[in-house]
Specification:
CATH superfamily of the largest domain in chain A: Dihydrodipicolinate Reductase, domain 2
Order of helices and strands of chain A: EHEHEHEHEHEHEHEEEEEEEH
Strand content of chain A: 25-35%
Number of helices of chain A: 8
Shape of chain A: globular
Oligomer: homodimer
Radius of gyration of chain A: 20 Å
Number of domains of chain A: 2
Largest interface: A-B, 45 and 45 residues
Strand order of the largest sheet of chain A: 8-9-10-7-11-12-13-14
Distance between the termini of chain A: 17 Å
CATH topology of the largest domain in chain A: Dihydrodipicolinate Reductase, domain 2
CATH architecture of the largest domain in chain A: 2-Layer Sandwich
CATH class of the largest domain in chain A: Alpha Beta
Chain lengths: 300, 300
């Protein structure tokens, strides 16, 4: 089914950094969404980004983009510490908001964002793009179908070496640190599997001596369903990307749970240390799927 | 080198349960140790066990075995809750003590056991038999040689389905529960890797509704070296036996870290998700190695 261009949701984006690049690229694959405007604090950066990604309008401030009445939805691709402020501004400008993960730096900020979007009648979604991978839907269906029995333990890891301390990830005042950046994934996925918020959570972390952000962290959570989750994340270890969901009868292993690579994804069903079934799943651009999903929510 | 029978350490064992069977079998492979006496609370059980394992003397009480002046060392193969009491009795009878893991139910009991053995000039060792597997020495040497850089994260799992609630493992008053029984292994191994006690530790657990012992548990620890460890154990999930030690440059995976199977053990060195080296190691009887090691400590 072709969606006429006029029916596509018209998006604007705040920010031109690393994740903004990925999101702009994703719009070449979206079916229900089109990126019509970009804003940066610098007109030069906004114009360069607009030219590179074939975006019609470039704004030299976030406020000016939010004042553009042609824009229906906004992507917040700013540093973590700015998510709350600009989500609330966007809501007040009557734009629907897809905000990069983590939604904010604490629960109070999140509540204020949710309230602002509610009061202005716009939708708000946290950009947990990994959730839109077909492998995630497949795993949730396997669990629903009883393939592993009751999920009892969850183990998730997301680590890679990233030692450039001049990067935003090492900037404490902008919401840096590996827990927000990568710990988000296993923590969020454990919540998705449990279908609930944890009723207990503890983590240990190591801080960079100068930057004062966590560079290695690991912890555990307990869920009301009875599931116990372990998670780890790090900027300064070897690469690790794993999820293992252990039920009372079998377990699921996901060697590559988080990011799109444009290849294929493998999901393994294991019983008594033997692979009993292996699933080969497509690996589409999860940013494009996420933007299309939110656009569909806006239209319906 | 042959050790003359007269030079072998003469052992007695308290208990005739599951682990006592394994230990008695191990004596057929020990070079420096011989099992000369067994004690049970029932003469019938002691005699049946002695006959089965070709042990010369069978005692109908632990006290009578401890009074046997021919015995130099004692294996405490009793339920966890009895470890402290009988270790102290054995020490007072001037026997060296190899006590099944966990050494006791709390730190106070451990301190009393250590003090009693010190005061009576006898050796005390916790029977962490997995430590005597060649794969453990190999992994420690790999880490010492810098194969993974600095160990930053440790993940260890020991789970299997064990649902017979009439078993001692489900008996709270005897020190049951999966943390003492299987959680011991990853917790102990993390300590061995870090070369230190944790300075922080937290776990979540699920309890059996009737037996009131943990059947599923998971938690995290922090070590003064900076390493963070995650561990899980369970009586009521699918089988899982894993250790992964993640350094800042590479990681070690051990698919079968805990028990002897008499086959081979695989240790993998992994960098950026690729196996860069695989080690194939022997899998001897670790109970026999442990008893021989302790016997050697006694003789030297």
């Amino acid at each position: 089914m072709m969606i006429p261009t006029t029916d596509k949701v018209r998006w604007g984006m705040l920010g031109t950094g690393f994740i903004a690049e990925r999101l702009a690229n994703a719009f070449t694959e979206t079916r229900r969404a089109t990126l019509v405007a970009i804003a940066s604090r610098s007109l030069e950066r906004a114009e360069a980004f607009a030219q590179k990604h074939d975006i019609h309008r470039a704004y030299p401030s976030y406020d000016e983009l939010l004042a553009d009445t042609d824009i229906e939805a906004v992507l917040i691709a700013l540093p973590n510490a700015l998510h709350a402020h600009w989500t609330i501004c966007a809501a007040e400008a009557k734009k629907h908001v897809l905000c990069e993960k983590p939604l904010a730096l604490n629960a109070n900020e999140c509540t204020a964002m949710i309230d602002a979007c509610g009061a202005n009648g716009v939708l708000l979604m946290e950009a947990a793009m990994y959730r839109f991978q077909p492998q995630i839907e497949h795993v949730l269906r396997l669990i629903d179908d009883g393939a592993i029995g009751e999920p009892r333990l969850f183990y998730g890891a997301f680590c890679f070496p990233f030692t450039d301390t001049s990067n935003i990830r090492y900037n404490k005042s902008l919401g840096g640190g590996c827990l927000f950046d990568m710990g988000f994934y296993p923590v969020d996925f454990a919540k998705l599997i449990a279908g609930a918020m944890p009723d207990g959570a503890v983590a240990f972390a190591h801080y960079h001596p100068e930057c004062d952000v966590e560079i290695i962290a690991g912890g555990s959570m307990h869920f009301p369903t009875g599931m116990i989750a372990l998670f780890e994340c790090a900027f300064q270890t070897d690469v690790r990307t794993y999820v293992e969901i252990i039920g009372d009868e079998a377990e699921i292993q996901m060697p590559d749970p988080w990011t799109s690579r444009g290849t294929r994804k493998e999901v393994l069903l294991i019983r008594q240390r033997e692979v009993v079934e292996s699933f080969d799943l497509p690996d589409p651009n999860s940013y494009a799927l996420e933007i299309d999903h939110f656009s569909e929510c806006i239209r319906t």
